[in-house]
Amino acid sequence: MTRVIKSRINKLREELERYSHAYYVLDDPVIPDAEYDALFHTLQELEKDHPDLITRDSPTQRIGAAPLDTFPPAVHEVPMLSLGNVFDASELEAFETRIRDRLGADQEIGYTAEPKIDGLAVSLLYEGGVLVRGATRGDGFTGEDITENIRAVRSVPLRLLRPETRPEKLEVRGEVFMSRQGFEKFNARARREGRKALVNPRNAAAGALRRLDPNETAKYPLDVFFYSITNLVRQTSVRTQYGALQYLRELGLKVCAEARQVSGYRECLQYYEEILNRKTSLDYEMDGVVYKVNDLDLQEELGMVSRAPRWAVAHKFPAQEVMTRVTDIKFQVGRTGALTPVARLEPVFVGGATVSNATLHNMNEVRRKDVRVGDEVIIRRAGDVIPEVVKTILKPDAVRSDAVQAPGACPECAAEVVQIEDEAVIRCSGGLFCPAQRKGAIKHFASRTAMDIEGLGDKLVDQLVDEELVSSVKDIFKLTKEQVAGLERMGELSAGNLMQAIEQCKRTSLARFIYALGIRGVGEATAAALADHFRDLSPLMQVHAEQLQDIPDVGPVIAENISVFFRQPYNQEVIEGLIRAGISWEVRAVAEHHTAPLAGNTYVLTGRLERFTRPQAASRLKALGAKVTASVSGGTTAVIAGVNPGSKADKARSLNVAVLTEQDLLAMLQDE
Ligand code: 9MJ
Which of the four pLDDT bands, split at 50, 70 and 90, describes residue 205? Predict the structure, then answer.
C-alpha cells in the first residue's frame, strides 16, 4: 500500500516540478494555474495522511519555516569573487592586452558576454541534487546562511533535473533580483491596499532576501539568474563558461537568455552597445555587462588578484546624471593626509540613492570646473562609485560667490598644507599628529580586509580618538571593557563583543598585517606578494628599496614608500607595540636547500602542456624552490614551452635564454 502511495507522491512531485520549471524558469507555462493548484492540493492531502513520506525537497515544503533570530554564518569553500570594472573601450582593450600578455597568446581571446544583473550575489549548494544551503556573498569568504529565504524564491529548484549527469555535490552562483514587472505589480498592489511602495527593485530584493522570516521573503516577487559553477572542471566535461551556462540550464537552473559567445574585445564592444540599446526593454535592472574568458583552463591559468578574477571584467553602463545645487565646499582629510574637496549638495535622488555629497577630486579639478558655493551643478553617480561633480551650469547673469581657495592649513589639525610638485593633491603635513589621519589609519587597520575587528567601525573610531582613548593602532589593544562601555551608543554587551573581536584579530596572517599598516600604495595584492616573498616581518623591516624590485606589483615609488615607512622610528615603535600586544602570524620557513634544488632558478611556462595544466606545473616547480614568472627577461633560467608556445619562446631565443620541452620538465621534476 505505502509503496503505491509513495510512487503516486513521487509522480505528483515530479509533475509539479516540471510545471513549475516551465512556469518560473522557462517562462512558458504548460498548464493552467487552476490545474496546478489542484495537483498541489492532492499532494498536500496525501502528505497530510502520510507525514512520514514528506521530504524537504517536496514542492509543498518550499516555504513555512519558522523565523530566525539571526542568520548563521556560511563559509564559502571557494571564495565569492568580485569583479574589476572598465568604463570605456580603451580600458577594455587594456584588459585584453593584460590577458594576452599573461597567457602569451597570439590568437583572439574568446569570451562569454553576459548582462551584469544588479541584484544580490548568492551561492547555492546542492547535494545529491537537493538544495541544502543558500548563502549571501558577505565579505567573499563568509556570508550569511539564508537557506530558508532562498527556498522562497520560486525559480530556485529545490531539486535538480537530470539525475544521471549531475555531480554529487554542486555549488552554483548567481544573482537574486526583482524583475521590473514584478516590482511594478507589487507596488501597484501595495498602493491599492494603502501599503508603502518599494523604492527600487535592487533595494527591494536586498531587503526581501534578508528578512528573518522566510514567510515574509515569500511575499516578494524574487527571481534569480545563475552564472557559474564552482566545482566544475573536475566533475563534468564542461570546458567553457558558455558550456557552464548551458549545463546550468540542463540542470533546471535559470540562466539569463542574453548571454553570448564573442571573440576579441571588439565583439565585446558590439555586445555592450546592443545590450545598452535594449536596456530599458529587458525586464531586469543591469549595471553593465560582464566578459569572461570562455576557456575554463585559461581562466584557471589566469587566476585572480586580490578578490577579483583576472579572467573577467565588468563593463559598466554610463553613469546617471542629475542636477542640484552646491551648498558648501569642504576639505576632507584622508588617511594619507590628502585633502579632498567635497561639495555639499541639496540632496537629490540618483541611481537609487539619495546623494548629499559629491567629490571634486582635487584643486586642479575645482579650478578646471570652476565650481563655487551656490552653483547649480550636474552630479554623476556610476554604480557604487562615489558621486562626483561633473560641471557647473552657469546662468548668464548669475551672481556667484568667490572662487574656492586651497586652504593653507589643515582643517583638522591646523598643520601647514603642502603640495608636492607634479602631484595634483594637496596634503596635510601633520602626519599622525593630525586626528583625521590618525582616525583614517585606525579605521583602515580595523577594516574587514585588514585586521577585521568586527564592531570597530568609523563612528566608534571617531569617538575613541576624540575622547583620547586611542591615538595609534597599538592603543586599540590597551582598551578596557569599561572604557568602551562608557561611550555613546555602546553598552556592556557591545563592549564585550568588541573586546572579543580585538582579541580574535590578534591571530592573523602576515599579509593582512602588512596591509593593515597602511603603507601608501600597498594594497591587498602587494601586501600578499610581500608576505609571500619575505615570509616574516623582520626581513621586510630591514629591506632597502632596490631589493623590492623583483616583487610583483612593486615599482620604484612603492618600494621607496615601503623602505621609508619601516625606517621611521615612530612606525617601528607602533609595530613593536602591536607585537607586544600579542599580534602574531604563522612564519613560513624558507625551504631548506636540500628540499629546494631549484632555488634561485626562474622559469616561464608557455603553450599548452600535455601532462599538467600550467598552474600545476608552476606549483610543482615552486615546491622545488624555483620562481615562476609570467614574462621572459635576461634573468629567466629557462622557458618551458608546450604546444603552440607563442611569442615567449621567441623572446627567450632572442635573449639567449634556454627553451625546454615538457619532457625536459618531467625529467627535471623526477630527478629532484
Ligand atoms: C551578474 N551580477 O550578473 C558575475 N554577474 O562572475 C554575472 N556577476 C560574476 N557574472 C564572477 N553575470 C564574479 C561575479
Answer: very high
Best residue for ligand 1 mutational test, from 78, 80, 116 (most atoms within 8 Å of Cβ) = 116
C-alpha span between 152 and 301 (Å, rounded): 38
Q: What is the pLDDT of residues 514-548, one digit of tens each?
A: 999 999 889 888 898 899 889 999 999 998 888 88
Nearest residue to 225 (alpha-carbon basis) of 305, 363, 337, 119: 119
Segment 176-200 shows an average pLDDT of: 88
CA distance 283 to 46: 38
Among 120, 175, 313, say which to mutate for ligand 1: greatest number of ligand atoms within 8 Å of CB.
Answer: 175
Query: Do residues 46 and 8 lie in contact, with contact meaning Cβ atoms separated by under 8 Å?
Result: yes
Measure 21 CA to ligand 1 centroid, in angstroms: 23
Q: Please give the grid coordinates belonging to residue 42.
A: 492532492
| Closest among 323, 318, 316, 330 to 389, alpha carbons compared | 323
> DSSP readout, 248-272?
HHHTT----TT-EEEEHHHHHHHHH
User: For this structure, is 627 an active site residue?
Assistant: no
Q: Tell me the C-alpha distance between 522 and 501, whole Å.
A: 25
pLDDT at 622 over 50: yes
Q: Is 593 a residue whose pLDDT tops 50?
A: no
174 Cα to the center of ligand 1, angstroms: 7
Instruction: Cell numbers for 153, please give them.
Output: 524564491
Give the integer Cα–Cα distance in Å for 340 and 347. 20
Lowest mean pLDDT among 163-177, 312-326, 492-506, 589-603: 589-603
Q: Which residues pair with 378 in a beta bridge?
A: 323, 391
Identify the helix (H) or strand (E) that includes residue 205: helix 201-209
Task: Report the candidate in 131, 134, 149, 155 with the shortest Cα–Cα distance to residue 65.
Answer: 149
The pTM for the full model equals 0.65
Span between the terminal Cα atoms of the chain, in Å = 67
Q: Which atom of ligand 1 is nearest to the CA of 256?
A: 12
- Three-point CA angle 470, 563, 505, nearest 5°: 40
d(CA 258, CA 55): 35
Residue of minimum CA distance from atom 5 in ligand 1: 116
Contact of 491 with 474, CB cutoff 8 Å: no
| Identity at 352, one-letter amino acid code | G
Cβ contact 575:608 at 8 Å: no
Choose, from 48, 116, 292, 627, the residue flagged as catalytic. Answer: 116
Q: Could you read off the pLDDT of 105-117 as tens digits, one per residue?
A: 888 899 999 999 9
What is the distance in A from the centroid of ligand 1 to the CA of 308? 11
The minimum-distance atom of ligand 1 relative to the CA of 259 is 12
